[in-house]
Amino acid sequence: MRGRQENEAGVSKQTGTLGLIGRSWAMLFVSGGYNVKIYDNQPGQSARFLSLRKQLVELEEAHMLRGELSAAQQLALLSSYDDLSQALDGAFFVQECVFEQLEVKQSIFHDMERFVGKDVILSSSTSCLVPSKVFSKVQNRSRCLVSHPVNPPYYVKLVELVPHPETAAAVMDTTHALMTKVGQAPVLLKKEIDGFALNRVQAAIIAESWRLVQDGVISVKDIDLVMSEGLGMRYAFIGPMETMHLNAPKGLEDYMSRYSENITRVLSSFGPVQLFLLSRPQEMCELIPCDQQHLSARQERRDQFLMRLAKLKKD
Predict the structure, then answer these.
(1) Minimal CA–CA distance to 16: which of 188, 153, 155?
(2) Which of 32, 88, 234, 310 could cross-link with 115 by S-S, CB 3.0 to 4.6 Å?
(3) Positive or negative torsion for Cα 125, 130, 134, 137
(4) Per the database record, which ranges form the 3-hydroxyacyl-CoA dehydrogenase C-terminal domain (predicted)?
């Protein structure tokens, strides 16, 4: 943990909405000992962030609170503002969390640039918009990047750092260090690409899972088991490249010499991009009813499992 004086010299800022991502970023930054100023473009709404007390206390009681500070100490680092210029005063890092609408993000970054120094890093949480579009109205694009978290960020540590074509290397390095300090697991993309890395991999999984269900090969329930009781068991600890490396006597090159022909044959059978129209859309809702009560319960269950998994990986 860095000293208090150093933390005050570089104050981490938070700007965004009252959704899960904004709350999670605030919790992560205070866990690293940073003062966090929160701004919301709906007057009076940002004060609701201060209700994080209950969540942080519960995490502390479950021994899952991130960082070295107590819940009370972390809460003391939070403040909220209805005025953007006040929220940005003294910032060294800004994390935007507004909803996924390009024009809204472009507008807020255009506004923010008027109130921050030239060395302040401007970061977006977008999951699907490339930096060259998000920051098109920013004059100094060398300090801009996307820091894309995974939902829910407090339990899933990955953050994709995606540069604008003009982003300075030092900005990527500083953001990587910041994310590491607050306990996240940042990965560096060398250039922007639609979907970044995580969503491109996820899209491939979704597309083939959807195809197998749509074509009557497997049920919704069982395709989820393919992941949760199969691939997901090892992917929680090692990735696809290491999986291949460990699944042949002489490593990755040996694996490909043995299985590349079969992989290519299977890939050639995938067919065109899916339209994502299920012939049996009710099957998922039969497994988990689509009302808010059932969905919220399953989301809570998911978060509890992710909390336990995070603790296991930490141990």
Answers:
(1) 153
(2) 88
(3) positive
(4) 195-262
